[in-house]
Please model this.
Amino acid sequence: MNLDYTIFSVEDDSEIADVIRLALKGQGFDVFSFGSGEEFLGAIKLKKPNMVLLDLMLPGIQGIEVLKKIREDSELSDVVVVIISAKSMVQDRIEGLDLGADDYIPKPFDINELTSRINAHYRRHIKSNINTSDNVISIGLRSLDVGNRVVRYDGKIVDLTPSEYKVAEMLFMGRGKAVSKNDIASAIYGENQDPERLKKQHRTIDMHIKSIREKLFDVNKDFIKTVFNVGYTID
Model:
């Protein structure tokens, strides 16, 4: 999947760098890894990423200095910076956020939480790039009208429940990439760490998808596609 969304990962631990790169590539992102701040600063002059994942403790120039250089460059003002660091004291987080980081993930991190956070930033990116004149995402005969919070098929409003609309909205917003059941459950029901409760929520989401497919005449399941062991996607 090509999301046209580029992530630069600055991490000197090669094993962690590989985990991040493989996990995010599996989500459909273009990911480039750099083992030092110097390598990253050289690369960013040639290609502007949408997001930077930044370790603070690096060989040579430190992550905080890299962050300062990013935020001092007006051409990089819209680049999302997510700090991923073993420096997890509250003061470290405050310093990073005060210097312009958009998010802070302490090490050791859960890879599912990492991908969920990255996906959340990506969805905001998609939403901010919708044409504000009509706020409509059209895919063939089906469309999402963000401003009026409705989904249409061939110009006619589809009768969706609030939860079904939320699911459809997330799929339209994240078109071209897999939207996980965990992300959908979090958006509809809130954060939940209970495995049994989460399992029930996933089954309910499956029922929402079935209903949405029927209402959008997606009988062959070629519009909303199932991504095995992950969730769903609109290609």
User: Anything to note?
Assistant: The longest helix spans residues 195-215.
